[in-house]
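FW: tagging you since you asked about this chain on Friday. Here's the raw sequence from the shared folder, copied in full. Didn't touch anything.
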Amino acid sequence: MKLNIAVLPGDGIGPEIMKQGVAALDAIAEKFNHEFHYTEALCGAHAIDAVGDPFPDDTYKACMDADAVLFAAVGDPRFDNDPTAKVRPEQGLLAMRKKLGLFANIRPVATFECLLHKSPLKDELLRGADFIVIRELTGGMYFGEKYQDNDKAYDTDIYYRHEIERILKVAFEFAQKRNRHLTVVDKANVLASSRLWRQIAKEMEPQYPDVTTDYMFIDNASMRVLTEPTFFDVIVTENTFGDILTDETSCITGSMGLQPSASLGEHTPLFEPVHGSWPQAAGKNLANPVAQILSAAMLLEHFGLTAEGALIREAVNASLDANVRTPEIQVEGGNKYGTVEVGEWIADYIRKH
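HL: got it, structure written out here
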């Protein structure tokens, strides 16, 4: 198969982990006789520094011309610590999602047996947890009307029927392919936007009689994800709740450096780790590349390359079992491995198996 892939390393640790994601893809291409062509493009703080725009037109074109986008992370403390900044790296991320029509963020959450001890949760709570969070990505407060002065600020949490229907359709269909259990997370007891979500979900329920659908307020869901993670199969929720909930799930895997994601919608699909740019670690060979590498696996699986994706997952599991791990998940007394060493080990495994 030939694939044209837009590569957006972004900021902080982004360029370092991206190299390892591409290395895994190259190893797959070599082993399975595929052709992957890469177009690297600017985004985030680097793009602001270079052209004054966190998602410039050239990057947008590169994404639209590609079959898929492999993205790392954006963010820079120069902008985080300046509340008056008019242009921010994260605006590029939001613009990319909006322009590419990436309304559905798919975040799988699963445990690694050898890493259960790295979670702050008890082993007996974690074992067997395997669910997906589907987050609406282009609506809600992040994109609603905003205002701020010295005395008042507001963000408008606005949703339209068609936005809710299309993300719920994705969620119901994912549930049909898994264990046929969907949990709709909202705050319908307080928020009008959530009441519309629940109303539409109730209307759509009869179209999917093979799916057991339940409803949960976000505060309760935030607790249940940590106290009863095996309850869930597919969770669907709005943008802000999904952002918070999916970061919380890092407590289940043991590290945000292990969680990949896909963003799907109207145009080119995008694949990215769920963690941020971790600028404090940039250039120090500390960042865990596994989430980026697993995002590459999701990319392959999206195009039906299931054996290829499975081999990447096998390589990742083998690296963890062999204690080839970055510092935040390494066992006490284990050998020291950095971003490069972990990535090279995984790519080498792919070539040999």
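FW: The chain has two domains: 1-102+259-353, 120-253.
HL: agreed, and The chain is about 45% helix and 20% strand.
FW: great, closing this out.
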